[in-house]
Amino acid sequence: MQNAPKIIAPPYHVQSTAKTLRDGFPYFAYHESVSALWSQKWRMPCSKGIYPFMDGNVADFEPIFAELIKVSNDDPSILQRPDDYARSFLPVAAQLVARAEEALSKSENEEAKGLFLRAAAVYRIARFPINRSPLTQEAWEKGKAAYERGGELLDPPSVPVAVPFRHADPSKGDSDAAIQAYLRLPKGDKPAEGWPVLLFICGLDAYKTDNTPRVQQHVDHGLATLIFEIPGTGDCPAAPNDPTSPDRLMSSVLDWVDANASSYGFDVKKVVVRGISTGGYYAFRIAHTHADRLFAVVAEGGACHHMFDPAWIGHQNQMDYPYALADALAYKFGYRETDYPAAVARYAADGRKFSLVDAGIVEAPACKMLVINGMEDSIFPIEDSFILASQGLHKDLLARGDRGHMGDPGAEEIIHQWIDNAVAGKP
Predict the structure, then answer these.
(1) Which residue segment(s) compose the domain that 416 sits in?
(2) Which is catalytic among the residues 31, 288, 305, 405?
(3) Do residues 269 and 389 share a domain?
(4) Residue where one domain finishes, among candidates 120, 153, 186
(5) Catalytic hit among 60, 309, 377, 384
(6) What pLDDT is attached to residue 392?
(7) Is 309 left (phi over 0), alpha (psi -120 to 50) or beta?
(8) Has 377 been annotated as catalytic?
(9) Cα–Cα distances in angstroms (integers) from residue 165 to residues 52, 289, 292, in the given order
(10) How far apart are CA 192 and CA 19, in angstroms?
(11) What is the mean pLDDT of the chain?
């Protein structure tokens, strides 16, 4: 390629947040037992209700992880047996739903809302990081049902919508099904030109049921927000193993926005996309493939090229992600052997077909973009943000020092300010 990016080869930045390295890559000790996962990695965010425990309550999870430690003999291999893992979560979630129904019967709506959302959070972690077995699929379906009951009680409410997958191509692996999404409209008086639209693209493990705080902030900032999943996750009907399926997905979503602009009061000239984590990869792509239909794109924690390096994939299971990330990503991208090492091997050998560099995507013109991540990310290499941001015009790069994946804490405030300024026409 004549205009190939300058940054095209490792060595990768080695995350200073890792106390231990193995084969030159970060290693985190909470992979060694279920108790370490809970005490060293997850109990703190659970107690604060932050990713991946949005809407959750630590009192619900303490007994679950105690039971999981007991039934597994503290052996982390249970995390790679999805049904055995999920089983400890389901009774607690069902009890929360029952309590929510009882509160609702007494018109205790605020109590019911909290309980439904807590149940959805337990179901989320039951199918974490991806629904790929009978019980994790059951957890996903029951989690959606609980979330939708709670979503009716949000202010403003979360409304399920079925977006026609108009550009689906079954010959390439797309399902002949609608794109399931949730829509929330801002409160108050609609601007004369209509509500700016925020298309929220989910990640590997946090789906449309799992981002209430983030979506709430966008709605509070006056953005009509539509949230949906990426290929290979949740309810997404786009083919997981076809690199071009997200183009058909996004064209269908944008067609729906155009067709429903008058019904919902959308400003189709102000359509913004926010993609988080693996959804950032798709945000990177559509900022170029759909530049003429988008006003601006935020790609948070995304990647585009080195995320598919065999060496990076080969070490993902030991790095910052709490579970076996390479296994989950292999499944997400359509490599679905039940023998996880075999699936990962195929993914590592074949994954470069998804590279936005090799496909020439990053060289195409892009809409206005914010590329934001933490320098200490060991989910996806920070070099991918540098590659993407160094190509073309209209791109702002923020690589946050002393921050991990997605640039948190503090990235949310930056993103909202950037979007507000973009929508208002400020530099």
Answers:
(1) 156-305+355-427
(2) 405
(3) yes
(4) 153
(5) 377
(6) 87
(7) beta
(8) yes
(9) 29, 18, 20
(10) 54
(11) 95
More confident of the two residues 30 and 14: 30
Report percent pLDDT > 90 for the chain.
92
Same domain for 265 and 205: yes
Q: What is the pLDDT of residue 209?
A: 98
Helix (H, G, I), strand (E, B) or coil at 292: coil
Select which of 277, 355, 378, 385 is catalytic.
277
Amino acid 16: pLDDT: 75
Whether 318 is in a domain gets the answer no
pTM: 0.96
If asked whether residues 412 and 269 sit together in one domain, one would say yes
Question: Catalytic annotation on 277?
Answer: yes
Residue 411: what are its φ and ψ, rounded to 5°? Answer: -70, -35
The structural domain count of the chain equals 2
Of the three residues 133, 153, 173, the one that is the final residue of a domain is 153
Binning pLDDT at 50, 70 and 90, where does residue 5 land? Answer: very low
Name every residue whose Cβ is closer than 8 Å to that of residue 98 and which is 6 or more positions away in sequence.
none
The three-class DSSP label of residue 397 is strand
pLDDT in tens, 153-189: 999 999 999 999 999 999 999 999 999 999 999 999 9
Same domain? For 187 and 89 the reply is: no
Which strands form 296-300's sheet, in the order they lie side by side?
159-163, 179-184, 224-228, 195-201, 266-276, 296-300, 368-374, 395-400
User: Given pLDDT bands bounded at 50, 70 and 90, which one contains residue 124?
Assistant: very high
Let me know if 405 is a catalytic residue: yes
161 shares its domain with 258: yes
Q: How many CB atoms are located within 10 Å of the residue 152 CB?
A: 16
Work out the number of other CB atoms within 10 angstroms of the CB of residue 130.
22
Residue 2 has a pLDDT of 44
